[in-house]
Design brief:
The chain is an alpha/beta fold and 223 residues long. It has two domains: 148 residues, Rossmann fold (3-Layer(aba) Sandwich); 67 residues, DNA polymerase, domain 1, CATH 1.10.150. It contains ten helices and six strands. The protein has a six-stranded parallel β-sheet with strand order 3-2-1-4-5-6. The longest helix has 21 residues. The termini are close together.
Length: 223
């Protein structure tokens, strides 16, 4: 492995379904009521795409401007949460594993279904700095297609001049993370149970390993 690409919320950033609950609240503001279980199905997707899919499932074909309006409310609520809430913290052993990988010559990158403003708010709150704690980050609004498409992984590979995706690992807590790893043909695709999906739910999608703690990644990489 030359590069490990981590998801953020639910994988390296503690999340007790706050993202899903916030998306639910943003949709409710416009009269659309979805259960958290329905919303969890699209967790991990680029958020405007997630909103469009949910509305489509309820029989609404929404204009792009309307979707963007809901998304902007979601962004504002998430930024306020990540700026002010005492719940904001990394998942267990996330930073330790990031440092372990970097000390052993493996690049650490993040990709996320969030837009850049939310991702940067999280990095600032956790005091994670590029070049010190991680090596690169890419957000869904910076590529043509978010997850489950492989665009963000390919962008990270391009940044590090990596041409073989078998030298890349992808880790995330949702089906779209695992689908993204499969679509990018990553050499290692790992599901983690600290977020939106249970072990049984993750089992139904392409994976090499399913882990309960990022600390397990150390042994996987060693072997």
């Amino acid at each position: 492995m030359k590069l490990i690409v981590f998801d953020m919320a639910g994988t390296t950033v503690f999340d007790e379904n706050k993202v899903g609950i916030t998306l639910q609240a943003a949709l409710q503001k416009y009269g659309y009521d979805f259960s958290v279980e329905e919303i969890n199905v699209v967790m991990g997707y680029e958020k405007p795409v997630a909103i469009s899919l949910l509305l489509k499932d309820s029989g609404v074909t929404a204009e792009k401007d309307f979707v963007n309006k809901i998304h902007q409310d979601f962004v504002e609520m998430m930024i306020e949460y990540y700026t002010k809430s005492n719940e904001v913290k990394s998942t267990p052993n996330a930073h330790h594993v990031m440092q372990y990988l970097r000390e052993n010559g493996i690049y650490v990158a993040f990709d996320t279904g969030f837009s850049r403003p939310i991702a940067d708010t999280i990095f600032k709150r956790l005091d994670w700095k590029q070049g010190e704690d991680f090596d690169f980050s890419i957000t869904s609004d910076e590529v043509e297609n978010g997850r489950p498409y492989p665009d963000m992984i390919f962008k990270a590979m391009e940044h590090f001049n990596i041409t073989d995706s078998k030298e890349v690992g992808k880790i995330g807590d949702t089906m779209s993370d695992l689908q993204q790893g499969e679509n990018a043909k990553c050499g290692l695709t790992i599901g983690v149970t600290t977020g939106a999906y249970s072990r049984n739910e993750l089992k139904g999608y392409h994976h090499d390993f399913i882990i309960d703690d990022l600390l397990e990644l150390k042994n996987i990489v060693k072997n």
